[in-house]
Amino acid sequence: MPDKLPAAAYRHFVVPLDGSRLAESVLPAVAALARSLKASVTLLHVVERRAPARAHGERHLVDRMDAETYLAGVARRAMAREMHASWHVHEGDAGGLARALAEHEREFGHDLVVLCTHGRGGSRRAVMGSVAQQLVNAGSVPVLVLRPPAAGSRGEQSFRSILLALDADPRHGEAAIGAAAELARAFGAVVHLVMIVPSFGLRLGRWMLTGRLLPSTTAALLDQSARDAERLVAKRCSALEKAGVRADARVLRGDPVRMLVRAAAEVEADLVALATHGRSGARALFTGSVASRVASLCKRPLLLAPAPRARRSSRRG
Question: Would 295 disulfide with which of 121, 128, 155, 232, CB 3.0-4.6 Å?
Fold first, then answer.
């Protein structure tokens, strides 16, 4: 495992907008982030085929001309004059927003997608599953999911406390730590590293079967996993500190989702960051399904970093 902190830089944001005030509510936060990171911003609208007449109770954008006029107006209104803001209308929505962003990764050269959550509870979880998770699965760019600002607030975003969730796969650790470190540097944030090892009896993945058949062995393996986790988070914490990022580390035992949400509350996290496949996976602790559960329970901004995809073998079995 490398001691050097993975490099990451956020210099170009893409912000998908559907024409609703709800989607626009993240723009003050986007502007504040872009100023802090000296980043440019591209506003994006995907013109859908057979689009509904209204979106989130407001008139929907159904053709290119309307969409371009709308995005140009938003750029003038919401982005500061000294910032570089552009806009793009994508037509041909096969695959939706996820496909459109994946197609434009090379053209835009963006390194962060910023989304607003729509709704709460079950609907919020559904949006995470159908939009943010799809973006993570389809592309290679981290996705920052922000909540609508509270009534009366200016909506600007500042990250002072970042909870960074790691799992046992070192590739995922690099994806998540690289995604969070740049924000930590920009805002002088403290990064709280956390790894969660299942407790004995928890029905989670491969531990469910071994726990039934080999309870003593399973308990011993879990204890060893906790000791390994202590060494891993200490090493990651040291790498962050050497890179000038304040950090601390902890290992917790229990259900990954609930322990992660609890830890975020304890450190008063302004942001929760984790790596995810954007789908259900066999090896990673923080798979797409777990990330969606975190999003449904954690009422905090969420940074999803795409985990590296395993290379497919060219050999035929």
Answer: 128
Q: Which CATH number characterizes residue 213's domain?
A: 3.40.50.620
**Is 313 inside any structural domain?**
no
Position 220, amino acid? A
H-type helices in 116-248, by residue range? 121-127, 133-138, 170-187, 207-213, 215-242
97 shares its domain with 179: no
> What is the signed CA dihedral for 62, 65, 70, 71, rounded to 10 degrees?
110
How many helical (H) and strand (E) elements, i.e. helices and strands, does the chain have?
11, 12
DSSP string spanning 23-45?
HHTTHHHHHHHHHHHT-EEEEEE
Task: Please list the pLDDT of the chain residue by residue as tens digits (317 residues).
Answer: 445 655 567 899 999 998 888 888 889 889 888 888 889 999 999 887 766 666 666 767 878 898 999 999 999 888 877 678 899 998 875 667 888 888 888 888 898 999 887 644 444 443 444 577 778 777 778 889 888 877 666 666 778 999 998 877 666 667 778 888 888 988 899 999 999 887 755 545 554 555 455 567 767 777 888 888 899 889 989 989 988 899 999 999 888 888 899 999 999 999 999 877 654 333 344 554 566 677 667 788 989 888 765 543 334 33
**Burial letters for 12-47: b for 16+ Cβ neighbours within 10 Å, e otherwise?**
bbbbbbbbbebbbbbbbbbbbbbebbebbbbbbbbb
Same domain for 299 and 182, yes or no, is yes
Q: At what angle do helices 215-242 and 170-187 cross, to 10 degrees?
A: 40
Predicted TM-score (pTM) above 0.85: no
| Structural domain count of the chain | 2
Within-domain flag for 6: no
